[in-house]
From TrEMBL:
Gene3D superfamilies xref list: 3.10.450.50
Name under which the protein is recorded: Polyketide cyclase
Positions in coiled-coil regions: none
Record-level GO BP terms: polyketide metabolic process
InterPro entries: Cyclase_SnoaL-like (IPR009959), NTF2-like_dom_sf (IPR032710)
Source domain of life: Bacteria
Length: 321
């Protein structure tokens, strides 16, 4: 049986050690917790990496050298057994923090402080990581570096805040895990269908807290209350991709009041209307997604969302970097 508490603690310590351990010792450290043939899926433009050496050279060392002496700052850190497919997972919503001194993911460094937000999902075999999926926010890194590639955000540009309750890292109350997951899954089921005129979906106001906060990726931004979410994200998205079909997720579980879900890709859709400055192309597209939610007393109070816009826009024929 998956020992959620023990694996969370061990993986949390390991991931923080990856940021501070001397470079000469990193390979040995990685082999302690990564399977030799670990598969790592990274956001655009890094792509898929297979094996410890590929992860070290393709992601970890470039990240560390881009943010020398930097730190890892977790906002949510949870674990559980997925309700979709198979597998035990440790997942994180985190920021990689430091002065941006060398290029990363083709982004030109600013020499100034950045908070590189990322969602991470690690499939576990005991305490060994056998698969990793890392979705970092390329657009927001570019924005922080003074090279925003998209028009002004639909919502508000802001740093991803941690949960209002400040309990997202290894939360308590495992007895609430199932109810949290079921609440989010019910919301997602009802979200699939919508009125083409009002863009409303049945029952949504019953799932979301009246003071809900939705924290979107670079290019969309954050908003407050369900009407704000509709205005700043959902209506523009559905106008551009009215036939979108989602829910193809490889990981979804609850841990206390928190729930996460990820699809690689999650959505299939046709680019039928303008989106963030790009006219409709008519192309069939896919979208990689990670979500983290905080539930409170039977409602969804906060939602953090990461989208692989680098990959999405490349499919539209637009290269962001």
């Amino acid at each position: 049986m998956f020992d959620t508490s023990a694996v969370r603690r061990a993986t949390h310590s390991f991931l923080h050690a990856l940021i501070v351990t001397p470079e000469t010792e990193l390979h040995a450290l990685l082999t302690q917790r990564f399977a030799p043939d670990v598969r790592v899926r990274c956001a655009y433009p890094i792509g898929d990496l297979v094996g410890v050496e590929a992860f070290l050279e393709g992601f970890l060392l470039p990240l560390r050298r881009a943010l020398p002496g930097g730190m890892r700052r977790d906002e949510i850190f949870i674990a559980g057994t997925t309700r979709m497919g198979e597998g035990d997972f440790v997942t994180a919503l985190t920021h990689h923090v430091g002065n941006f001194e060398r290029p990363f993911a083709r982004v030109t460094p600013s020499g100034k402080l950045v908070f590189l937000r990322a969602g991470e999902m690690y499939r576990m075999d005991g305490e060994t990581i056998v698969e990793a999926t890392i979705l970092f926010d390329l657009v927001d890194l570019m924005r922080q570096s003074g090279a925003m590639p998209l028009p002004a955000m639909l919502g508000t540009e802001m740093l991803f805040p941690g949960p209002a309750t400040h309990d997202g890292v290894m939360p308590e109350h495992p007895e609430r895990s199932q109810a949290s997951a079921e609440l989010v899954e019910a919301m997602l089921r009802d979200l699939r269908a919508f009125d083409p005129e009002s863009y409303e979906s049945q029952g949504q106001m019953g799932y979301w807290h009246r003071q809900m906060l939705w924290y979107g990726p670079g290019g969309i931004g954050a908003n407050f209350t369900y009407p704000g979410f509709q205005r700043d994200h959902r209506i523009p998205f559905l106008t551009a991709f009215p036939d979108r079909v989602g829910g193809n997720h490889f990981c979804r579980f609850g841990d206390g009041d928190y729930v996460c879900s990820g699809g690689w890709p999650s959505m299939t859709m046709t680019h039928a209307g303008p989106y963030l400055g790009v006219p409709a192309t008519g192309r069939a597209l896919t979208l990689r997604v990670m979500d983290f939610w905080r539930c409170e007393a039977g409602s969804i109070r906060e939602n953090w969302v990461l989208l692989d816009f680098g990959d999405l826009f490349a499919q539209m024929g637009v290269r962001l970097v």
